[in-house]
């Protein structure tokens, strides 16, 4: 029984990693995909996925605090066009252009933060609206045309560049991942963000500055997206107005799928990175095998649904088994809306709590009073 | 009724040999339960005794390992019980949180769960549904318009609405087994009595009422018979009239209870105050002034709606103070935030533990140190090992019963959750500890532990404000009790008055202001 639990836990933790390895092995030995296990292909994947990886990390940070930022992709798209455009159209040197891109990223993050943390608008709505506004700004600035000339050659060399035969961009991903991991796991700020994501009202009542920390998380996501925009210029070799919004869904899919792995039930950095490469390598192998181009979108969409679904399933499992570490579902967003409906029928319809503890005091129930709680969450200073 | 099995003609159901285990934990072990028509049957037991599991099995949301249920002529196998079967066997349930959706109308609340009148396409026929709702409300003596929102009902009215909803599909001549899980936990004494009178009427109408409760005075006052469960075993079923409260406590705990926690030595009246409120107003509070000195326990007695929770939230910075001054250790605090107040040594334990006190899916260790990570952050690194060592020590200090500090807190019983929440603050040695109903919904044993910890903290110099509906607690451990009524402090009693006198005094003040 004990040993069995440990095996289950191991698979929960490293299942996605195992799957990633399995996919790599499969396509390496598959005689129909001889191009798969080549150095060139590996480099391509690492280069291509580095920017997505960085944007997925930018998504994870506010997600930990219970806020979703849908605008990181468009944000990176805008800053990439702006960075290229400032050099090409306005003749700026490289470093001011990079700085301007990051500042614009931070500004967008700050606007999101004001809307969500200060005004109290639902983050899905605020950042979805922001995405559209950013899209308009990109078109207005670029006229819908890629900016290919006048970009600093130093930046252009970075894209295909290598260090120790590994693409340079991948080191940027590793660096940002390390910093984000440190922030989330090894600082009080990270612990506070997880607390806010778990129960914002309780977080407020233990003295955590909920709005301030949420604000910071969204600003940081914007800043990282701004930096990713600069790297996007390097990777593509141009400021392309079409790219930004393509990253929205894959980044979120990776963050949600990543929450099923490494630290199951929590949005976490290494799980997210694993998810990014699992998705990319699967799609790459299938494409080499002759799959149609739409397989990529199919995978991202399925990953998002499977990621959230596994979270729900793991949450139910966790409630059923006593004495295991948290594998909560990353479905807190939907929970508030459904609570009202689930609490309604007059029978004892609580999710079966099979942990043997006495829950007479209703500890297995979510608060009924959804509207009042939602209001209360904002009652703080 | 000819199909009734042998035995008392009043027997409603008999449950025999009910067992259930979770892994290595035996939650229920051969439990029997016998209910009669026309009685109020109290089901008592400590946190973790297994009574919740019992109820979930009866409701069909949990499957038993063994056991059967006999009703009028039918036998049901409890290892394969479903919610639908439970309803057919005559069970109806009212959960502790009542399950009322405040934003919906009273009529819609009744209609939820398949009780709307439907048109041919499954659409809700509003007018007929409303008429049906009005009829149900009339049957249960609930004098409200089905169109008003449930949020506008008083708490006892909401409880009645939940009961009406549970019983609405039972014919007027029919009878059901109505199970209520701690329906009075959130109600102050007067409202609780009103609800108990309603339950008595239902029993007189022939229903069988099962009351799960931690309030022992209630058991003796309202119930006809009592079944006690301890450690998953049936301890006994007795007539409530023959039981003293001490005997009841003995049954629940399996031993005598030491009601040893009392107020510490009187606080030093000359010490500089740690907290002063001067004419504070805002929300339901009109004018509150009070002075709190180190080591003092000040009880606040007030009925629901008196502004007691709001007062605590204002002191802690979770609610805006509109007028008046808040002075902490001689410094006036303007528009405080919760984080600023925490830094000043103010600690707050909210009434609603589930919604506002705990981080449900996080571990005991995370819950105990929530908001305190800075203490373990040194040389740019969170010292998790140090944190876990401290938590392991404090879990013992605050008598939390858990097999591991890594266990998610919602796997613990309510009493143990509350000890974690209390321990979280006590380990910071706060200057002022604000407690809003700290013993609500926890068993008598845990209650004494919690009160003991509070009393100990006050001896160490922490000043305490205690809000409680349990007047026995207030009079026992407070140095003085303030009566809050209609947003004002209207009376003050020194230590030594009986809980009965306090209740009388509060009710009198309440009547005087109305």
Please, could you describe this protein's structure?
The complex is a heterodimer of chains A (about 375) and B (about 525). By secondary structure, chain A is mainly α. Chain A has helices spanning about 1-30, 40-65, 70-90, 95-120, 125-140, 155-160, 170-185, 190-200, 200-205, 210-235, 250-260, 270-290, 295-320, 330-340, 370-375, and strands at about 160-165, 165. Chain A has a two-stranded antiparallel ribbon with strand order 1-2. In chain A, helix 2 (about 40-65) packs antiparallel against helix 10 (about 210-235). The model of chain A is unreliable at about 320-380 (pLDDT under 50). Chain B has about 525 residues and is α/β, with parallel strands linked by helices. Among the domains of chain B are: about 10-95 and about 180-185 and about 210-255, Rossmann fold; about 275-360 and about 430-514, Rossmann fold, CATH 3.40.50.300. Helices cover about 35% and strands about 25% of the residues of chain B. Chain B has 17 helices and 22 strands. In chain B, helix 15 links the parallel strand 19 and strand 20 (about 465). Mean pLDDT of chain B is about 85; it is low at about 1-5. Chains A and B meet through helix 8, helix 9 and helix 15 of A and helix 1, helix 2, strand 6, helix 5 and helix 10 of B.
